[in-house]
Write a structure and sequence with these properties.
CATH topology of one domain: Arc Repressor Mutant, subunit A
Distance between the termini: 32 Å
Strand content: 5-15%
Helix content: 55-70%
Radius of gyration: 23 Å
CATH class of one domain: Mainly Alpha
CATH architecture of one domain: Orthogonal Bundle
Structural class: mainly alpha
Length: about 230
């Protein structure tokens, strides 16, 4: 490991020494490495957030500027608006069923994570980006992980590395691709949202999600027992 000499005024040197003396850090080098890693994480998080916001903005611009492959969104032609056909609602319902997604929050989280091969975020960051409560995001992530749609790492400095697994299986890949195309336009997003509204009241959605939450809780309990055993 290479070395780097850092000059500090007496007050800062005393502060570093106090942090090491507290037992939180093994040495001054350990303390400095922790600060650098935290700064790297903050910068990576800021970069990713900007990329996600740009992605959301570009999707909105595309929906307003160009016709779609499912252009149930209106298509302007010589000053006229032509309504192009949308896929049948039964097809949209089948795609969502193939994925196992039963709530708007689950869908929005999956759509967000599927746009990037790897995503480094905390649940609070996703909640802020997507406009949901943090608890709703945590529940959605638990369900998506149980469905093997999303894989996530252990928490590191308040964030996880997320990876979308949908594209690894053909039926799910096709369903997600169709829904992504549909969601690229305002009218398509309404069609998807209507699927969740038809028979998914808050109570019904909670009941449908309960089996997945139960499995997630059982998995967490097994992990805690395993950690205690070692």
């Amino acid at each position: 490991m290479s070395t780097l000499n850092v000059s500090l005024p007496p007050a800062m040197k005393a502060f570093v020494a106090a942090q090491v003396h507290s037992g939180l850090y093994s040495s001054a080098s350990d303390y400095m490495q922790t600060l650098i890693r935290a700064d790297q994480h903050r910068r990576a998080e800021a970069t990713l957030e900007a990329q996600l916001l740009d992605s959301l903005a570009s999707d909105e611009d595309a929906s307003n500027a160009s016709p779609s492959a499912y252009p149930g969104a209106a298509s302007p032609t010589e000053g006229r608006t032509i309504a192009l056909p949308l896929p049948p609602t039964t097809a949209v319902a089948d795609w969502l069923h193939t994925l196992g997604v039963v709530s708007p929050c689950q869908w929005d989280v999956l759509l967000c994570l599927s746009r990037h091969q790897n995503t480094l975020l905390g649940a609070a960051d996703l909640a802020r980006l997507l406009g949901y409560a943090s608890t709703a995001i945590v529940v959605a992530l638990d369900v998506l992980e149980t469905l093997a749609l999303v894989e996530r790492s252990q928490v590191s400095q308040g964030a996880r590395l997320y990876r979308c697994l949908v594209l690894h299986t053909a039926p799910r890949r096709e369903a997600l691709t169709q829904l992504q195309t549909l969601a690229a336009h305002r009218t398509g997003r309404v069609v998807i949202a209507q699927q969740f509204r038809q028979d998914h009241t808050p109570k019904g959605a909670a009941q449908q999600a309960q089996p997945f939450l139960t499995k997630s809780q059982e998995r967490a309990a097994r992990k805690q027992r395993w950690l205690k055993a070692i």
